[in-house]
Each structure stands twice: as structure tokens, then as C-alpha cells.
Design brief:
142 residues, alpha/beta, 6 strands, 5 helices, single chain, two-stranded antiparallel ribbon
Amino acid sequence: MKSYLQTKENIERNWYVIDAEGKSLGRVATKAAHILRGKHKPIYTPYVDCGDYVIIINAQKVKLTGNKLVDKKYYNHSGYPGGLRERNAKVMINDYPEEMMERAVKGMLPHNRLGRKMGKKLFVYRDENYKQVAQKPIKMEI
């Protein structure tokens, strides 16, 4: 019996939509990362991008438990001296919910060129309206 090795030429990709309203940030991010990597498929191969496309809607209505709204910090640096910017999760969820969700998901993907390729298949929206209606995404429950 031979083992099946997935190649990038014969991958079938689906579209999934995840509603983050009332769900925990980490639960949504792990589910999205799981689908982006392709681990939900029986043909999963670690060195091939065999994952599907993921659309996350209602990112602003995601839930954070405990004191994370005040205690969790997000850092950016411009590259210049004194260019460190620090924001807490409350500011991020109010002003930049898409960036917060993207950071959570992309932090769970591999940190190499394959992970960057997987990250391009993620689409995050602040409310329930999204552009990829023509792809007929499948609704995924968490």
C-alpha cells in the first residue's frame, strides 16, 4: 500500500464563514487557524498549503474573558527610537477589531513563508457584511 502525498496542483479549496459574535477570541482563532492549515482534511500534508479560505464576521463582537480588556497589550514599533506604541485590548476591539483577530489567527500559523501564504486566505470583517458572497461560503459553527 502506498502513502498518498498531497501536491499543490490538485487541491480543492472551500470557503468557510465563522461568526465570532459572543464567542471567545481564542476559540475563533484556533478554529480559523485549523481550517487555514488544512488539518480538517484527511489529505493534510504539513509542507503543502492545502487549507481552505476563512471569512470571520462580527469581529467587533468577540468576547474576551477575565481582565484581558485592560491587561492584554498589543505592541507596534515604527523602527525609530522611541517609536514603540502600546495599546490595550479595549482600544483594539473598539478601533481595530480586524487587526486584533488577524493577529490572533496569524500567531497560530507557522512563522515562515508557508504561514504567510496561509494568512492571505483569511478575511476578517468588523460586522456581518462581507464581500465574498459569490464564493458561497459554508457556515461553520464553533
